[in-house]
Write a structure and sequence with these properties.
two-stranded antiparallel ribbon; 72% helix; mainly alpha; Four Helix Bundle (Hemerythrin (Met), subunit A); 2 strands
Length: 174
Amino acid sequence: MTWYVALVLLVGAERLVELVVAKRNLRWSLARGGIVQGQSHYPFMVVLHIGLLAGCLIEALTTGRPVISMLTWTMLGLVFAAQALRWWCITALGKQWNTQIVVIPGAPRVMRGPYRYSWLPHPNYIAVAVEGFALPLVGGAWMTALVFTCLNAGLMVARIRAENAALGELVEAT
């Protein structure tokens, strides 16, 4: 289980890096007239993501469930794929990426990287969903995977609705 604890802690450290990047990007956006929108769901999102990491550790360390090796390797591959997609999204959005919904009036909508595909308007949320399901299963924490996936689905409905409204304003402003 030591390797699983290390993996979860690495994902937690990656989240802290994301927050540093987001804070820097927020300052950049606000300096250019950026407007933060859709804040009502944000505290729940923070708690849910902290809960995912805590749940992974608590469930894996307290249940003593055996980990199925083939499932473990498959889920580990999905965790790494989700991280790659997440950082592709962050890189493509550049300074416009944030953990919050921020619109800079007059700024063009990013249409590069994974955002160039019209059939995939929110690729980062695919990364979040895959990671939220796969990371717990790497350590046999299937209850955490189930609870996170269900709660995240509800959150994504609110988040995507708010983000689409903000993006609609961005398109109208250009």
